[in-house]
Design goal:
Layout lengths: L2 E2 L5 E2 L2 E4 L9 H28 L6 H30 L3 E3 H34 L4 H4 L2 H27 L8 E2 L6 H5 L7 H34 L4 H33 L6 H26 L1 H13 L3
Parallel strand pairs: 3-5
Antiparallel strand pairs: 1-2, 3-4
Helix pairs in contact: 1-2, 1-9, 1-10, 2-3, 2-9, 3-5, 3-7, 3-8, 5-7, 7-8, 8-9, 9-10
C-alpha cells in the first residue's frame, strides 16, 4: 500500500531491512561481536567526553577536536547499531519511510562530520608542530568553535539535498533494502523513476568531501613529516612521530572502509554483496571503537586523567 504526498510522488509506508543477504543464519552470531564493539564505543567515547569536559587542563584545541570526534562517533554508531542488533537477533527489520530517511540523514551527515573533524585534527597537528609559536593565536577557542560549526553545517548542507530528492521520488512496490541500515544507494535502488541525478549527486558529495579532506590531511602530514625530520633532537622527533602515528591510524581506519563501501556501491558489481555490507559496517563500528582506545592509551596526558577519573569512581 503506497502513500502519496503533495508532490505527487509515492512511497511505501515502510521498508524492510534484510540485514546481510546470504548470511541470515549467521547474523545471530555476528551480532555478538558487533554488540561488544558498540558497548566499548559507548563507554570509551562517553569517558573521553566526561574527562575532557571536567578537566580544565584539557580545554585545548587538540582535546576539543577529540571531544568532537567522540561525540560524532557516538551519534554515528547509535544511528545504526540498535536497529542492526534488533534485525540480527529478533528479525525486526521493518522501518518507516520517514524513519529510514532520518537514519540515512544521520548516517551520511555524521560520516561527513567525522571526515571534517579528522581534517581539523590534522590541521591542529600541523600548526602545533610546524608553527608552535603561533599555535595558540591561530587555533584560538573561537576558531575551534567556528571550525566545529562549519564541519557540522557542511554535513547538513551536503546531505539534505539527497534526502529531499529521495522524498520526492516514486518508489516501486518492492520495499526490501538489502542492508541492515538505510544507506543512500541502497534506498535509491528501490526508486522506480530515473535515479541518475541521485546517483550523480551522491558520488559528487563523496568525491568532493572525501577528496578535499584527504588532500588537506595528506598535505598537512607531508609538511609535518618535513618539519619533524629537520628537528635536531631525536627525542623530539620520536615524540612528534608518536603523536602523528595515532592520528594516521585513526584516519586509515575510517577512510579505507568508507571509500571501499562508497566505490563498490557504484562500480564493484563483481564484489559479493555480503563483503560490501560487512565492510560498510566496519566503518560504522571500528573507528568509534578504536578511537577512544588509541587516544586514551597513546596520549599520556589524557591517559593520566582517565586513570584518575576511574580511581575516583572505584573502577
Amino acid at each position: 500500500m503506497s502513500s502519496v504526498n503533495s508532490t505527487g510522488s509515492s512511497h511505501p509506508p515502510t521498508f524492510f531491512l534484510l540485514g546481510i543477504p546470504g548470511l541470515e543464519k549467521e547474523q545471530f552470531w555476528i551480532a555478538f561481536p558487533f554488540c561488544i564493539m558498540y558497548i566499548i564505543a559507548l563507554l570509551g567515547n562517553i569517558i573521553l567526553l566526561i574527562v575532557i569536559k571536567t578537566e580544565s587542563s584539557l580545554h585545548e584545541p587538540m582535546y576539543l577536536f577529540l571531544a568532537m570526534l567522540a561525540f560524532t562517533d557516538l551519534v554515528l554508531s547509535t544511528s545504526v547499531l540498535p536497529k542492526m542488533l534488533a534485525i540480527f537477533w529478533w528479525g525486526s527489520g521493518e522501518i518507516g519511510f520517514i524513519s529510514c530517511l532520518v537514519q540515512l540523514f544521520f548516517v551520511h551527515n555524521f560520516t561527513i562530520v567525522e571526515s571534517g573533524v579528522l581534517m581539523a585534527m590534522a590541521l591542529d597537528r600541523y600548526f602545533a608542530i610546524c608553527h608552535p609559536l603561533r599555535y595558540s593565536s591561530i587555533l584560538s577557542m573561537p576558531m575551534v568553535a567556528a571550525l566545529g560549526s562549519l564541519v557540522l553545517l557542511r554535513g547538513v548542507l551536503m546531505v539534505s539535498p539527497g534526502c529531499f530528492l529521495l522524498r520526492r521520488k516514486a518508489f516501486c512496490q518492492h520495499r526490501v533494502i538489502s542492508n541492515s541500515y538505510c544507506e543512500n544507494m541502497a534506498v535509491v535502488k528501490l526508486v522506480c523513476e530515473d535515479t541518475r541525478v541521485n546517483a550523480a549527486y551522491g558520488l559528487f558529495v563523496a568525491i568532493i568531501v572525501t577528496g578535499f579532506d584527504i588532500i588537506v590531511i595528506a598535505v598537512s602530514y607531508t609538511m609535518i613529516l618535513r618539519a619533524v625530520l629537520k628537528l635536531s633532537s631525536s627525542d623530539a622527533q620520536l615524540k612528534a612521530f608518536n603523536t602523528c602515528v595515532s592520528h594516521i591510524f585513526v584516519i586509515l581506519a575510517f577512510y579505507v572502509p568508507a571509500l571501499f563501501s562508497t566505490l563498490t556501491h557504484r562500480f564493484g558489481h563483481s564484489i559479493p554483496q555480503q563483503v560490501h555490507i560487512l565492510v560498510a559496517h566496519l566503518y560504522m563500528l571500528v573507528p568509534p571503537t578504536l578511537n577512544p582506545i588509541i587516544y586514551g592509551v597513546r596520549t599520556k596526558q589524557l591517559r593520566d586523567k582517565i586513570a584518575v577519573l576511574l580511581q575516583k569512581k572505584g573502577i
